[in-house]
UniProtKB/TrEMBL annotation:
<dbReference type="InterPro" id="IPR003598">
    <property type="entry name" value="Ig_sub2"/>
</dbReference>
<dbReference type="GO" id="GO:0009966">
    <property type="term" value="P:regulation of signal transduction"/>
</dbReference>
<dbReference type="GO" id="GO:0005520">
    <property type="term" value="F:insulin-like growth factor binding"/>
</dbReference>
<dbReference type="InterPro" id="IPR013098">
    <property type="entry name" value="Ig_I-set"/>
</dbReference>
<dbReference type="InterPro" id="IPR003599">
    <property type="entry name" value="Ig_sub"/>
</dbReference>
<dbReference type="Pfam" id="PF00219">
    <property type="entry name" value="IGFBP"/>
</dbReference>
<dbReference type="GO" id="GO:0005615">
    <property type="term" value="C:extracellular space"/>
</dbReference>
<dbReference type="InterPro" id="IPR011390">
    <property type="entry name" value="IGFBP_rP_mac25"/>
</dbReference>
<dbReference type="InterPro" id="IPR000867">
    <property type="entry name" value="IGFBP-like"/>
</dbReference>
<keyword id="KW-1015">Disulfide bond</keyword>
<dbReference type="GO" id="GO:0001558">
    <property type="term" value="P:regulation of cell growth"/>
</dbReference>
<dbReference type="Pfam" id="PF07679">
    <property type="entry name" value="I-set"/>
</dbReference>
<dbReference type="InterPro" id="IPR013783">
    <property type="entry name" value="Ig-like_fold"/>
</dbReference>
<dbReference type="Pfam" id="PF00050">
    <property type="entry name" value="Kazal_1"/>
</dbReference>
<dbReference type="InterPro" id="IPR009030">
    <property type="entry name" value="Growth_fac_rcpt_cys_sf"/>
</dbReference>
<feature type="signal peptide">
    <location>
        <begin position="1"/>
        <end position="18"/>
    </location>
</feature>
<dbReference type="InterPro" id="IPR036058">
    <property type="entry name" value="Kazal_dom_sf"/>
</dbReference>
Length: 286
């Protein structure tokens, strides 16, 4: 009995309470049930677990489950990386092979459908929602509907003012988040009709992304001319409302323009946004 107690204290120092079997067989080596003894009194208390609680590798103590994107044990044993949390399962991303990388098992949410929270925030899946619930203890947070929250369009990436030279190309970009999905159109100054109209040197392209329920739209002007200068509007709309962002294009003649004026997509006196700053723009979608 004294030997078991000493072994238990030593094992609990490493965050577990599973004792080796008296016969000397190690559970991790044999992988058979009954090869570890449980001492609940030695179980450490698991706190601040975003993915919820799971049993440790010998089914004794409750410990933090691995969250979405964390490594896991593909065989479900939990002996090395640990087990995935609530509503998560351990999977291999076979697509990694296409990039010449060796896929590693990661925790993936069983349901990838978005949900709308009572705080009117869209969560990428039920697992992200449950993480938010655990982080907001004491707050009443529930799912109001499957799918994203319905919202008026929100322009996540605004087109930026540009200074360019006659004969060069110009591209404005606009990223919009909305559900139902938004339609995006471009207009210039106070003109009534949407671009490109019948102008062959102006084109508009749109596609979904970069995130779900987003739309990216580009306005391209090839061989920009003096007459192309003006204010351009990105207008996004769905059945709930609309949003507008604008950018100004200044066009200088090729003879008079210094090299520093060639396609400057940043407003004077401003610095280009960093990747981390752009990621913060998506704070309403988890």
């Amino acid at each position: 009995m004294l030997l078991l107690l000493v072994l238990g204290l030593a094992w609990s120092f490493h965050g577990a309470s599973c004792l080796p079997h008296p016969t000397g067989l190690k559970w991790a080596e044999e992988g058979a049930e009954g090869q570890c003894q449980c001492v609940p009194q030695l179980c450490p208390r698991a706190t601040a677990c975003p993915a919820g609680l799971v049993r440790d590798y010998c089914g004794c103590c409750l410990e933090c489950g691995n969250a979405e994107g964390q490594l896991c044990d593909l065989d479900g044993s939990g002996t090395f990386y640990g087990r995935c949390g609530e509503n998560l399962e351990c999977q291999l991303d076979i697509q990694e092979l296409g990039y010449g990388r060796i896929p590693e098992p990661q925790c993936v949410c069983r349901s990838q459908g978005a949900v709308c929270g009572s705080n009117h925030i869209t969560y990428q899946n039920i697992c992200k929602f449950q993480e938010a619930v655990r982080e907001r203890k004491g707050q009443d947070l529930s799912i109001t509907s499957d799918g994203p929250c319905q919202t008026v369009p929100q322009i996540k990436h605004h087109p930026q003012d540009q200074v360019n030279v006659s004969g060069h190309d110009v591209i404005f970009m606009c990223e919009v988040f909305a559900y139902p999905m938004a339609l995006v159109e471009w207009r210039k100054d106070e003109e009534e009709f949407a671009l490109p109209g019948d102008d062959p040197h102006i084109s508009v392209q749109s596609r979904g992304g970069p995130l779900k329920y987003e739309l990216s739209s580009w306005l391209q002007i090839e061989g920009v001319r003096k007459a192309d200068g003006g204010t351009y509007f990105c207008i996004a709309h769905n059945k709930l409302g609309n949003a507008t962002a604008k950018a100004t294009l200044l066009v200088a003649s090729a003879e008079a323009a210094p090299p520093s004026l060639f396609s400057s997509p940043v407003n004077p006196g401003e610095e280009a946004p960093t990747a981390s700053e752009e990621e913060e723009d998506y704070s309403d979608y988890y």
